[in-house]
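Appendix B, Record 12. Input sequence as logged:
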Amino acid sequence: MRDAGGVTILAHPGTLNRDHLIPAWARRGLDGIEVWHSKHDAAAIERYRGYSHLHGLLMTGGSDYHGERTPGVVIGSVPVPDEILPPIDAVLRTRRTVRSRN
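Logged structural output:
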């Protein structure tokens, strides 16, 4: 993913029951974590914001809408703060710049 100029994001961690692995994944190159998700309640959002800050991870979010396969989930139903965009953009720009030099 990084070689292609992208970022690696742990999707919907609240559904995985693997929070104990987040520190190790962060040390091994995980770039970010999905903080806002249709199945994350307020406590989960705060927990994953904390993990993001503690481990220097980007924050992302979304509804996880996949069409008819996800009944009850509505695209755009999860509000995600605009403040998460500049850090993601900065990482992507840096990686694409490095990639274009090689």
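The chain has a mean pLDDT of 90.
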